[in-house]
Design a protein that fits this description.
Number of strands: 4
Helix content: over 70%
CATH topology of the largest domain: Multidrug efflux transporter AcrB transmembrane fold
Strand order of the largest sheet: 2-3-1-4
CATH class of the largest domain: Mainly Alpha
Number of domains: 2
Low-confidence stretches: none
Distance between the termini: 90 Å
CATH architecture of the largest domain: Up-down Bundle
Shape: elongated
Largest sheet: 4 strands, antiparallel
């Protein structure tokens, strides 16, 4: 494959690492002090009530009405409520949807739902409020679902390490697999912060995006490792690992960028439609997916392979130092043996001379 770029990825690796760490640090500060993490009832337990309505209204007035209503309810007044808005494209009359998410250990009772519905219909008589659907998740089941999702992600990462280790064992596959997973963790952290900063609750969409990014980013990384293996075979052992990796990354750069752009354009078109029609469930999948793809391409080129070179050089340095120490120890031992042998020879010679002299006397 022809090399069209000449970027020294290995030499500039500290810059790339600094950019990633800087972005994560800023996002972490925002997460801790500005944008707390929102978690869907699928993980925490609770109830979602969806109301359909027509016309336009101020969301602040709607939320204020619901908040004032639940303050009088003993079972709900301690719950945290979050709101999301979307449109029902199939509806001809009440085409707008507002979702009320109650995060708590107890499900919303029928009486409480009726009271909220009556209050909305009374306060907004021209908007035709109707309860569209209601679903509840037990807190223990939500936590169980979360751990199952987490186990699926961890299992996928472990399988990826073994796969890369077996396929690229000739270039140190296990370390290559570990560095690929480190790059994947980088992508997952970025996706998590996208959900946090754009105020999207962590739900099954988050797990779906995570698993898709795992596969997509790993695909890019495997293509790069395959190129490294091929170039290593052609170049021979005299060429350094850093030079091999730089050449491979520059050869794969166009392919990686073009593939990412094609996928991002397709997802962006879906995102635009979802934003126009205010479909939150699609937005919370497409937007993190787009940014995750960008992060995945970046980590494959600028994180995984350069990090692997640093580890490989460190490992070679340790081996070289161990070899030098062994050689020095061997030389030292040889010198001691030579000295001991010389002393023994001297003693033997002196003894022989003494015995000869005694015989003459």
């Amino acid at each position: 494959m022809r090399q069209t770029f000449h970027i020294d990825f290995v030499k500039k690796s500290k810059i790339f690492f600094g950019i990633s760490l800087g972005i994560m640090l800023v996002c972490l500060i925002l997460n801790l002090f500005v944008f707390p993490t929102l978690v869907d009832i699928q993980f925490t337990g609770g109830t979602i009530i969806k109301y359909s309505y027509s016309g336009s209204l101020k969301t602040s007035e709607l939320e204020s009405t619901v908040n004032d209503t639940i303050k009088e309810m003993d079972n709900l007044k301690k719950d945290t409520i979050s709101y999301s808005y979307s449109e029902n494209l199939a509806a001809s009359k009440n085409g707008k949807i507002v979702s009320l998410q109650f995060t708590g250990n107890k499900a919303v009772s029928v009486d409480d739902k009726t009271a909220i519905t009556n209050k909305l219909q009374e306060t907004f008589p021209d908007n035709n409020f109707e309860e569209a659907s209601s679903s509840s998740v037990d807190a223990s089941k939500g936590l169980n679902f979360f751990f199952k999702c987490l186990a699926a992600v961890i299992l996928a990462a472990v399988i990826m390490i073994f796969y890369v280790a077996l396929r690229f064992r000739k270039i140190g596959g296990l370390s290559a697999g570990v560095m690929a997973v480190v790059a994947l963790i980088h992508d997952l952290i970025i996706v998590y912060f996208v959900f946090v900063i754009f105020r999207m609750p962590l739900n099954d969409n988050f797990i779906a995006v995570v698993l898709m990014i795992l596969g997509y980013s790993l695909n890019d990384t495997i293509v790069i490792y395959d190129r490294i293996r091929e170039n290593r075979r052609k170049a021979g052992p005299k060429v350094t690992t850093g030079d091999i990796v730089n050449t491979s990354l520059n050869q794969c750069m166009v392919r990686t960028i073009c593939t990412s752009i094609t996928t991002i354009v397709a997802i962006a078109s879906v995102l635009v439609v979802a934003l126009i029609f205010n479909i939150d469930s699609i937005v919370s999948f497409a937007l993190p997916m787009m940014i995750g793809l960008i992060s995945g391409s970046y980590s494959s080129l600028c994180i995984a392979a350069p990090l692997w070179v640093i580890w490989k050089n460190h490992k070679d340095k340790v081996k070289m130092e161990a070899r030098k120490n062994a050689e020095a120890s061997s030389k030292s031992s040889s010198k001691k043996n030579n000295k001991s042998k010389a002393k023994a020879d001297a003693k033997s010679e002196a003894k022989t001379k003494s015995e000869t002299k005694t015989k003459k006397d």
